[in-house]
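Entry:
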Amino acid sequence: MKTMIKKLLIVAVMFGTLSSYTNNVLVDYKITNNDMNNISVVIKDASGTVVQLSTVNYKGDAKALFDYTQLKNGLYTLEIDTKFQIEITFFEVTVQGVAFFDKDAQTIYKPVFKKEDAKILISKIGLDSNEMKVELYYENELIHSEIVSSENPILKRAYRLDRTEKGDYAAVMTSNGRVYTEKFKL
């Protein structure tokens, strides 16, 4: 009977130690742009299914935005989606805790769309991809499409629109399997 009580106490102490360790895991992400608002935090499992999605209004360091100990054991990705970029970090949840693989982290730069008079200006840092597809739509009808492949990692394009064709336009860029859309009126 005494040995059984000793075993139960040892198991209880070990479980308490492990759970206190996993609850104190902090993640430190440096948000570099000073005017970051509405940061989207997405956690996906190994199959790509979104298991957590939240939006925070935050400036500075984003720490412990999610309790990772509530996840099942397995591999996950954490995406912090800001105005100009997406930071992707891989991590694993085990009984021992949460381990982040920072050296495998990736940064995807989003395109920037700007309308000036009857021009659409599109720029994107393409360090993460050397092929980008650009499409322009007028009233939901495709009016221009091109695939840009370049050794130059910076895409800069200017598209002149017909000033007499007033209405709804959309610029769509596909890069790295992600689609970015900007709608505007002329």
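Residues 59 and 110 are 19 Å apart (CA to CA).
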